[in-house]
Amino acid sequence: MWNDSSGRTLGVENGDFGQLVWLGLLALVIGAGLIGPGRRLGHMARGLGAWALVALALVAFYQYRYELQDVASRVTAGLIPGSPLALGTEDGRATVTLDKGGNGHFEARVLINGRSIDAVVDTGATSTVLTADDAIAAGFNPAALTYTVPVSTANGNTKAAAVRTDEISIGGIVRRNMTVLVAPPGTLWQSLLGMNFIGSLSGFEVRGDRMVLRD
Predict the structure, then answer these.
(1) CA–CA separation, 175 and 169 (whole Å)
(2) What is the C-alpha separation between 95 and 6, in angstroms, rounded?
(3) Nearest CA-CA partner of 172 in 84, 91, 48
(4) Does the structure show a pLDDT above 70 at 138?
(5) Phi, psi of 48 (to 5 degrees)
(6) Which residue has the higher pLDDT, 177 or 76?
C-alpha cells in the first residue's frame, strides 16, 4: 500500500510482490503445521505427501475442467430429456449440442424469463410458440392476451398472441427482447423453438442424432 504509486517493490511488480507475500504466509502456516512440537519425520513426510496430492488433484481438475463438464452434461442429458448434451465455445462463440429424443425430434430445455420450458426444435416454424401452460410458467397470462396472429398447427389453423420475452437462453446462447407467440389453451401440446431463435444463430447443423447450435 505504501509503495503502490511507484508500481514496483524491491524491483518486483507490485501485483507479483503481493502474490509472493500471501504465498509466503501460506507456506509459513503449512510449515508450522508440519514442523510442530513433537512431530516426527514420518508424520512430516505424510503431511507433505497429502498436500502434494491435494495440489495435484486441483491441477488435474483445472486442466480437465471442460472434459468433466462434458461428462456432467452427458449424464444430465440422459436423465433429463432436452438438457444440453455439451456446452462449449468455438472461435469465442458459445455452442450447444442437443440430443435427439425418443420421439425422433430434437428437444431443448429452454429458459424463458428464467423459467425452464421443454420445447421441440422446429425449423419449419417461423416463430417460437409457447403452449398456454408454458406461457403461464414464463410469466404471461393467456387469458389477458389478444390472439390475432394466424398460425398453423397439427390441429389446424388458429390464431396466436404475440408477447415479448425478457430473455431466452439455451446453455450459453442468450437472446433478449425476442418476440414469441402464445397458442390458445388446448391448441398446442408442446412448445416449439422456431426460426426466430434458430435464425439468429451464426449456424446450426445436424450430426446424426445430435444437433449443434452456434451462437
Answers:
(1) 6
(2) 44
(3) 84
(4) yes
(5) -65, -40
(6) 177
Strand partners, 2: none
Of the candidates 28, 3, 29, the residue with the CA atom closest to the CA atom of residue 17:
3
What's the whole-number average pLDDT of the chain? 77
d(CA 4, CA 11) in angstroms, rounded, equals: 13
Confidence of residue 126 (pLDDT cuts 50, 70, 90): confident
- The dihedrals phi and psi of 124, each to the nearest 5 degrees, come to -90, -10
Whether 140 and 212 have beta carbons less than 8 Å apart is answered as: no
DSSP state of 140: -
pLDDT at residue 129, as a whole number: 92
At 95, list the grid cell. Answer: 455452442
- Angstrom CA distances, 200 to 14, 36, 193, stand at 45, 63, 12
Q: Can you tell me the mean pLDDT for 163-182?
A: 90
User: Do residues 84 and 111 lie in contact, with contact meaning Cβ atoms separated by under 8 Å?
Assistant: no
Please list, in sequence order, all residues whose beta carbon lies within 8 angstroms of the beta carbon of residue 12, skipping any fewer than 6 positions away: 20
Sheet with 129-130, strands from edge to edge, namely 149-153, 156-164, 179-182, 129-130, 191-193, 115-121, 107-112, 167-170, 173-176
Q: How far is CA 210 from CA 42, 50, 147, in A?
A: 54, 43, 35
- Helix (H) / strand (E) element for 33: namely helix 14-34
Predicted confidence (pLDDT) per residue in 16-59, tens digit: 777 777 777 777 777 666 565 555 656 666 766 777 787 777 77
